Amino acid sequence: MSGILVGRRAYVTGGSSGIGASVVEALAGAGAHVAIGASRHGTQARAMAVRLSSPERQVSVVEADLLDRTALDRAAREVLATLGGLDIFVHCAGIDVSRTAPTHETDDDTWDRMIGLHLNAAFHLSKRLLPALVKGTKPSVTFVGSVAGLVAWEGDVAYNVAKAGLHHLARCIAADYAKQGLRANAVAPGVIDTPLTRGYASGMEGGEAAGMKVLAGLHPIGRYATPAEVASAVLFLASDQASFITGTVLPVDGGLVMV
Predict the structure, then answer these.
(1) Strand order in the sheet with 183-189
(2) Residues 6+ apart with CB under 8 A from 172
(3) How far does Cα 218 stand from its chain's mean position?
(4) Helix, strand, coil % in the chain, rounded to nearest 5
(5) Domain spans of the chain, in order of start
(6) What's the CATH architecture for 9-190+225-254?
(7) Which pLDDT does position 1 carry in this prediction?
(8) Backbone angles phi, psi at 59, to 5 degrees
(9) Cα separation of 231 and 239, whole Å?
(10) Is 246's pLDDT higher than 70?
(11) What mean pLDDT, rounded, does the chain reach?
């Protein structure tokens, strides 16, 4: 799919590691100019920008703590100023579950951070970027949700609800802006081999290797995915090949939610 996004301008939150980094690679590889959204991994993001930049495409970094409304406002302004507009917005920023607990034992900080980074940041950034997006070239919004937003995983109430809300936010944006030519969708990954996932697995019985084996076994396809496999789905949804797809949640889950 090389070259299918030549000249398009994209902003990817959480773009310095994991799924987000693979999305940046995929969009830049398809020819897009990309603003990499980063928070804790600014150095890593800047190294990516240097590596991916070329005379044909601009890759830059926008650093911001998306839980800070002032920083979020600044990030939106900086993205638009740096890219000169926007055609593609991908929200990948997120945090994983560090400790499972039933709903009544879920601490307030965990709830606030999960909802804040996955859902609130997606809304507030979308609100600020949509006026520019609808003026863009074949504009699209894609949120990286989760199968946890499609089924309720025991002990993960904050993450489950945040991702379910993110899926429906994509549908609402799709409904609001369809007549203006903007498409909005979400992907719902299963277990992906990222540092966040391995950190979660390390807290499971038997440690990381045993935990990853258990997580792989959840999928009928018999394994977990690579970040690049999720990025391929995001690239598809952002491209003209998905020109008649909007308001959908695409599972990228090896069949996990079908059983």
Answers:
(1) 59-63, 33-38, 9-13, 88-91, 140-144, 183-189, 249-252
(2) none
(3) 22
(4) 50, 15, 35
(5) 9-190+225-254
(6) 3-Layer(aba) Sandwich (3.40)
(7) 57
(8) -125, 120
(9) 12
(10) yes
(11) 95
Question: Which residues participate in catalysis according to the annotation?
Answer: 159
Average pLDDT over residues 54-73: 96
Whole-number Cα distances in Å, 139 to 180, 182, 187: 9, 5, 17
Nearest CA-CA partner of 71 in 131, 13, 111, 10? 13
pLDDT, tens digit, 9 for 90 and up, residues 158-195: 999 999 999 999 999 999 999 999 999 999 999 889 88
Cα separations in angstroms, 161 against 8, 118, 249: 32, 10, 15
* Cα distance between residue 226 and residue 224, in whole Å: 7
Is residue 36 within 8 A of residue 15, CB to CB? The reply is: yes
φ/ψ region of 192 (left if φ > 0, alpha if ψ in -120 to 50, else beta) reads beta
Using DSSP's 3-state secondary structure scheme, residue 89 falls into: strand
Which residue in this structure is represented by tokens 């590691």? 17
> Tokens 């394994």 appear where?
223
Rounded CA separation 142/166 (Å):
10
Single-letter code of the amino acid located at 89: F
DSSP state of 242: G
